[in-house]
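Go through this fold for my students:
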Amino acid sequence: PSVPRHTNRLINEKSPYLLQHAHNPVDWYPWGQEAFDKAKTENKLIFLSVGYSTCHWCHVMEEESFKSKEIGEIMNEHFICIKVDREERPDVDKVYMTFVQATSGGGGWPMSVWLTPDLKPFAGGTYFPPEDGVHRVGFRTVLLRIAEQWKENKDALLESSQRILEALRHTSEIRVQGEESPPPAKEVMDTCFQQLSRSYDENYGGFSKSPKFPTPVNLNFLFTYWALHRTTPEGARALQMALHTLKMMAHGGIHDHIGQGFHRYSTDQQWHVPHFEKMLYDQGQLAAVYSRAFQISGDEFFADVVRDILLYVSRDLSDQAGGFYSAEDADSYPTSTSTEKQEGAFCVWAAEELRALLPDPVKGATEGTTLADVFMHHYGVEEAGNVDPMKDPHQELKGKNVLIARCSPELTAARFGLEPVWLSALLKECRQRLSSARAQRPRPHLDTKMLAAWNGLMISGFAQAGAALAEQGYVSRAAQAAAFLRTHLFDPDSGRLLRSCYRGKDNSVEQNDVPIQGFLEDYVFVIQALFDLYEASLDQGWLEWALHLQHMQDKLFWDPKGFAYFSTEAGDPSLLLRLKDDQDGAEPTPNSVSVTNLLRAACYSGHMDWMEKARKILAAFSERLQKIPITLPEMVRATAVFHHTLKQVVICGDPQGEDTKEMLHCVRSVFIPNKVLMVADGDRTGFLYHQLPFLASLERKDGKATAYICSNFTCSLPVTSVQELREMLSP
């Protein structure tokens, strides 16, 4: 590689996204006091650009504008330019995204915002093309106009930014309104179900036309709705909607049939042509939701998808020290000699390429049939490519195919006169050959940043899959990642989580000079992961750490006046707003998950203040839950769990005994949305006995493993047979 012509101060950062911009001719600063002081000293506006390393349109704007010497000169002359990795600093991202969404009606990345020297926003947008077009003003024009405004109308701009900030403060406030009780669970559940049902796509599953996101929060809500309404037509429909969506996603192009795992979203209604980046948070949540689908349906298809996701994460997103990387990019070089990256290049296929890789005649099929014929028919491959030009604005996928399972295995087998078992073996052989061929292509960029929150979601995925599929290896992988968090993303002196760490040289794990402290989402997803890991492994150390972190979360983020948790802690003068997220998106909002975490924490500790905090969160969000519950499906689910009271399933027995293991398998193999599982192993000096004195009164009956179902620490009669336990667990 040639020596870079420019190097800016981002070269000293650890974030892969910031390092991508270290050789731009723009004089970038990271978010911090140095940039703020310079803006004030020189009385200059700030241009803030926020993105992430696997964001396709962020790459486009960099190529077109931030690598341009001419545009770089305009930026450097008129602005102090700051780059932020939204995955490292979700706090900064949320403040200014709130502004962009409120003023433009939309949002996304790259996010481009202009701020006064005291960090107040007054203009913003997302991607800008470099030059003026028919429908859009160009980035160069916007820069020059804003610089001119600052020179001519400084006072008006300052006044306007102050007004905007006050309005944002007012509209973004979430607090308890007078009445201090959670909303009625039944009405909120029914309204959310009806709103989802109306937006459901009967043909392809999912909840919009396009683009289509996996949104695991919707599917988890539907599973809980079904569990509480099993005998009603609505319950049956909820289950059908969730399972059909999961099947269509797994068949679609959003699922990587060759390299495993799921891409971020589909650009079309059919789940066919995706945006090709792969995010850790999707893999973690989808592993958990497909595990639940398997628990409910018993259909091995869903278990296979779980194994597929976890294979991908273990192979491609795992650090050797035990943590999980953040993402893989959508863009890559088509060949080792290419000079320009293209979206999807690593994943798509030309028909002639497949014919060359799969020329073998197929035994038992009609005369002249090759492996390529069978594979191409099954996966919807067309000679001229199967991508709709409307979904390919840059013509990067012209003549290429995104694999999508167009037929059931039975139909493909019948079409070629093959036995279904033989077809399955053939398709597997084809996929392995394509995987080997794909391994020769240049790989997409890997974001090796490791985030506490997303690692938490992935630990939950491995732990829940391990429990539901009875795969001990998955539980061990979850425990390895939790140990990684405790070593690299937890400060034992302060008792606090850290946000991020990074793969360094020689595969070491590195930290920023000044580590970024954990945000609310880091605590919430890690606590959830530790509860899931305890239920899968029965190691009480994870439980103890979870309860410690819950106390710390309360101390740092709880709003004692308006209730619920702020996303950020107090005391950072560079953050203009302390916000509470009010929408479940690609990830559930932390307050939604906190409700269930608090209920679980209360059950494991007897600390009833946590039950009260859960009630207060639901009270703070009550109005939104009653009007538009579809925006908070995870919190609606938590409302139901709150109202139905968690079942404490206590098994008294030796964790290594076969009779205890049978009972544990019985509990783990069924979907029960409102249960916590614990084992009373008879060690009265252990952590659980210390937390929950009532356990000392529960004993094994006739020397056998014995189960109790408890509610608010009051227990049922003991049962010693798996059959009786199964009956007690059913609603």
Q: What stands out?
A: The chain has a mean pLDDT of 95. The domain at 645-730 is CATH 3.40.30 (Glutaredoxin).
